[in-house]
Amino acid sequence: MKRNRIAAFAAAAAATALALAGCTAGGTDRGEATDGGGGELTPVTLQLQWLTQAQFGGYYLAKANGYWEDLGLDVEIIPGAVDIVPQDVLAAGDVDFAIAWVPKALASIEAGANITNIAQIFERSGTLQVSWADSGIETPADLSGKQVGSWGFGNEWELFAGLTEANASGYTIVQQNFDMNALLNKEIDAAQAMTYNEYAQLLEAVNPETGELYQPEDFSVIDWNEVGTSMLQDAIWANTERLESDEAYADTAVKLIQGAILGWIDQRDDPQAAADAVTEAGSTLGTSHQLWMANEINKLIWPSTSGVGHINEDQWNATVEMALATKNQDGAQVITTDPPASAFTNDYVDQALEALEADGVDVRGEDFAPVDVELQEGGN
After folding, report:
1. Cβ–Cβ < 8 Å for 148, 172
2. How far apart are CA 95 and CA 92, in angstroms?
3. Which residues contact residue 374 at a Cβ distance below 8 angstroms, ignoring those fewer than 6 apart?
4. Residues 289-303: tens digit of each pLDDT
5. Is the CB of residue 375 less than 8 Å from the CB of residue 289?
């Protein structure tokens, strides 16, 4: 049983939960559950930014392995969809916590959302711009004069930061679907892709000239981490006002982060377990695709510079600076003024990290090494 990782902390959490009996995290009318010891669990809703998949494997493992339950929480994980903006759902008070990319959340904050980044789970960006190997596109400058695919919806800012820094010109932005068909059909010169999803779709497709799956050498990849225009992505966001005024909610935030970190550690140590957990939770993605995703997500988290979830100020500041300076094809910016100091805090994640490290938990994963994943046709 992996639950012994938090035995000492769980005992303290149980005592706190009993002291707070009758309190809930709010934002939900779900009835209270009880844990195995007869104590009441605090109902919590966590809004994801996309569908159930291994991008969120750590949260599903935290639930499946009982970490949140041991900490006194009954967490409901709510999948996202195209028409769901998680940080806005959070700001409206419809959920307790949400997962969202930092640039998107910064835009919502400037528009009036009172939310705070309490744990920066992904330390690296997973966004790529992919083209054919024989296209001559190797750098952002090479996108000049090209048909460049982009999803939009706030996913485009690293691309435009790279284009701006490279002084690229004459390119045409093409609205891209959330797949790689436009690139495979050579309707566009370069396509947006996540390392853990759409890029894998390319490697799961059959090359009609060979009858075999495409290989990495068939493509040219621009990685925004290497270019220097990467922005922070998946983070846990909380309601700012409730953090400041509701002690029970602030306590819940620490427990939510702590359980999540343990889940991400489980995904680090056993990516197949994460793939299995999200499949059990309803994901319909194929077996090899799901394992690929869990493995690639691990690379965005591990090794962690300061402990999983700790917000490194240099990365935060770089994201803010690019958000202020970058314009898209319509001349729009992510934000026009500096975000408030309340936009992020390490107060809650550092409490969670301290408790875990006191129990001997490895929260940095300095020895992390990804596994080898063999993709199958269609991700099956």
Report:
1. yes
2. 8
3. 288
4. 999 999 999 999 999
5. yes
CA angle (267, 270, 273) in 5-degree steps: 80
User: Which tens digits make up the pLDDT trace of 1-52?
Assistant: 354 555 444 444 443 343 333 333 344 333 334 454 557 999 999 999 999 9
Closest residue by Cα to residue 128 from 230, 251, 256, 11: 230
Cβ 21 vs Cβ 50: under 8 Å: no
Both structure tokens of 331? 């001349």
Write out the DSSP string of 70-106. HTTEEEEEE---TT--HHHHHHTTSSSEEEE-HHHHH
| Rounded Cα distance, 192 and 328, in Å | 15
For residue 367, pLDDT beyond 60: yes
Q: Which residues lie closer than 8 Å to 98 by C-beta, 6 or more apart?
A: 46, 47, 48, 49, 86, 87, 89, 90, 115, 236, 237
Task: State how far the Cα of 301 lies from the Cα of 271, in Å rounded to an integer.
Answer: 13
Question: Are the C-beta atoms of residues 326 and 283 closer than 8 Å to each other?
Answer: no
Q: What is the pLDDT of residue 6?
A: 53
Rounded to whole angstroms, the Cα distance separating 272 from 291 reads 6
The yes-or-no verdict on residue 266 having pLDDT over 50 is yes
What distance in Å separates the CA atoms of residue 277 and residue 267, rounded to the nearest whole number? 10
Higher pLDDT, 272 or 153: 272
Distance CA 139, CA 227 (A): 8
pLDDT of residue 73: 98
Full set of structural domains in the chain with CATH = 2-123+231-379 (3.40.190.10), 127-227 (3.40.190.10)
Residues 320 and 318: their CA atoms lie apart, in Å, by 5
Rounded to an integer, the average pLDDT of 347-372 is 98
| Token representation of residue 289 | 């695709």
DSSP secondary structure code for residue 175 in this structure? E
